[in-house]
Design a protein that fits this description.
- The chain is mainly beta.
- The protein has two domains: about 375 residues, YVTN repeat-like/Quinoprotein amine dehydrogenase (Methylamine Dehydrogenase, Chain H, 7 Propeller), CATH 2.130.10.10; about 55 residues, no CATH class.
- About 5% of the residues lie in helices and about 50% in strands.
- The protein is built from two helices and 28 strands.
- The strands form seven sheets. A four-stranded antiparallel β-sheet has the order 1-28-27-26, with no helix packed on it. Strands 2-3-4-5 form a four-stranded antiparallel β-sheet, with no helix packed on it. The chain has a four-stranded antiparallel β-sheet with strand order 6-7-8-9, with no helix packed on it.
- Helix 1 packs antiparallel against helix 2.
- The longest helix is centred in the last third of the chain and has 13 residues.
């Protein structure tokens, strides 16, 4: 997930490169955009091919409002988020992650003095919201020992009773730093605010977290000394404590780390700005960092993977998705969007299976920024319209939704017009199967 403070970045539309030969095409999926000023999806996660959750915000001129979408292969629709009015005001949702069979949404709510903001976590279990909370943080360690607040940006876990939320929290009141890295651990029944090393004397923020095992959790973000450049922050949980991991994004020239994908203690990918901005992808081999040249013009906004040899990354700077097959990174698509002035592609990604990947973000025609959801599907089968690997009535519903809404995919016969001939063509293909 790319932290939403970068939501104003405008990037050029991708080049429309085709997907990997073994996969199908990237296709856009309709999502509504209720905001009259801007709309965006920050992140997405799935428990199954048709069971996904995406979160973001919309704005009609009075500030960003939280947004949830549920669905996936059969289409996206608005999903009402839990009531957080008892916890605070101005709720925001930043990220969504999977822990065991549960989906978790994180963000923040505004509160009164002295916390000002509190990290927000919401649990979705079995298709229902099962809880919402603002975990308490450790108080200041100096007088007046006041409560501290913070923001939650990302979540990852290896089980329902072992998950981590990361973000940024206010300092401890001892003057060592204005903000500190936030790492909240859930053990199945309660939350613990776990100490994260302070590297600088001003600012610390963790925006992305990835876990492959209870003793191999990595989180990344940035830190800064007073009056100095921002630096890339990388920390690792080894089962007993968080440790700072020095990296090529820490120098007088500055840097940052945007996203992380951890597969093993000796197999961790981090994207950001390193070596004075000359490099954007590094790999941890267990003892040191290898700089990887993937031809990136900027950092990935997010990673998604089914395993260490099937990794996807989205580069917001050129609106292009890249794929790693175990040996090299190559451009792997991102369709052109007619009429777009810029595309914020892949701010959040989720891999449901091989050649079955979701990407969410936003795009603008120059006047209104709209939500964007795209899916890479398995090898082509025209009858499997929703790409879930089965040909059934769900494909008919998905096609009719696209056809009736004027979605370009409704032009099934490719003659440039969406009409009843496309319906007949699709039904013929559906009857034939794959």
């Amino acid at each position: 997930m790319w932290h939403n403070s970068l939501a104003g970045i405008a990037v050029l539309v991708g080049s429309g490169l085709s997907a990997q030969p073994s996969c199908g095409d990237w296709v856009g999926w309709p999502t509504d955009s209720p905001g009259s000023v801007s709309n965006i999806l920050y992140d997405t996660a799935f428990t199954g091919a048709a069971h996904g959750l995406a979160v973001g915000s919309w704005n009609s001129g009075v500030g960003p409002q939280p947004r949830g979408l549920g669905g996936g292969g059969a289409g996206w629709s608005g999903l009402e988020l839990p009531d957080t009015s008892a916890l605070g005001t101005r709720p925001q949702v930043e990220g969504v992650g999977l822990a065991g069979a549960d989906l978790w949404v994180v963000g923040n709510v505004a509160t009164g003095y002295p916390t000002n903001n509190m990290p927000l976590v919401m649990r979705r279990q079995g298709g229902q919201w099962e809880g919402v909370a603002t975990p308490a943080l450790r108080p200041q360690n100096t007088y007046p020992f006041a409560d501290r607040g913070g923001f939650a940006y990302d979540i990852a876990g290896v089980a329902e009773d072992d998950l981590w939320v990361v973000g940024s929290a206010t300092g401890y009141g001892d003057g060592s730093a204005t903000s500190v890295g936030l790492a909240l651990h859930f053990d199945g029944s309660s939350w613990e605010d776990v100490e994260v090393p302070q590297v600088g004397n001003r600012h610390h923020e963790l925006t992305s977290v990835s876990a492959s095992a209870p003793d191999n959790v990595w989180a990344v973000g940035d830190w800064r000394d007073i009056g100095q450049n921002f630096q890339a922050l990388v920390v690792r949980w080894d089962g007993s404590g968080w440790a700072h991991v020095p990296n090529p994004g820490e120098s007088s020239a500055g840097g940052d780390a945007e996203c992380v994908a951890a597969f093993a203690p000796d197999d961790v990918w981090v994207s950001g700005n390193f070596n004075a901005g000359a490099d954007h992808l590094i790999h941890w081999n267990g003892s040191s960092w290898d700089v990887v040249d993937a031809g990136l013009p900027g950092p990935f906004a997010a990673f998604a993977a089914t395993g260490p040899d099937d990794i996807w990354g989205s580069c917001a700077m050129n609106a292009t998705v890249y794929h790693y097959d175990g040996s090299s990174w190559t451009p792997a698509g991102g369709p052109d969007i007619p009429g777009s002035a810029y595309v914020l592609r892949g701010w959040g990604m989720a891999a449901v299976g091989a050649c079955e990947v979701w990407s969410v973000g936003a795009w603008s025609d120059g006047s209104l920024q709209r939500t964007l959801a795209e899916r890479l599907t398995p090898g082509a089968c025209p009858a499997d319209f929703n790409g879930d690997g089965q040909v059934n009535t769900q494909d008919i519903l998905a096609f009719l939704n696209a056809w009736s809404s004027g979605d370009p995919r409704g032009d099934f016969n490719g003659d440039g017009a969406i009409n009843t001939i496309d319906v007949l063509a699709f039904l013929n293909a559906w009857s034939a199967g794959c």
